[in-house]
Specification:
Layout lengths: L4 H37 L2 H21 L4 H15 L2
Helix pairs in contact: 1-2, 1-3, 2-3
């Protein structure tokens, strides 16, 4: 447990940021999985809708610094290929 006042504040803020970052990454992964699932057994409209949501979440995670730009590009490319099939 920290003794200094600023260190105590830092523990609180880092816990909050950790929670927000975990939520952002988790929602991105879920959106990607939903897009892949829609490709396997969904209609064209469902595929496009889920793919657009996944791309939006990937862009948000990238802008927040949660994932690397190359990972974002790779995932968006994969989803776009699935969407255009």
């Amino acid at each position: 447990m920290p003794n200094i006042k600023s260190a105590k504040k830092r523990v609180k803020t880092s816990a909050t940021k950790n929670l927000i970052n975990t939520y952002g990454k988790s929602s991105m992964k879920t959106a990607v999985k939903n897009a892949e699932k829609a490709v396997k057994n969904g209609s064209k409209e469902e595929i496009v809708a889920n793919a657009n949501i996944a791309i939006k979440r990937i862009d948000k995670a990238l802008s927040s610094g949660l994932i690397h730009k190359n990972k974002a590009a790779r995932q968006k490319s994969k989803i776009s290929k699935m969407k255009n099939i």
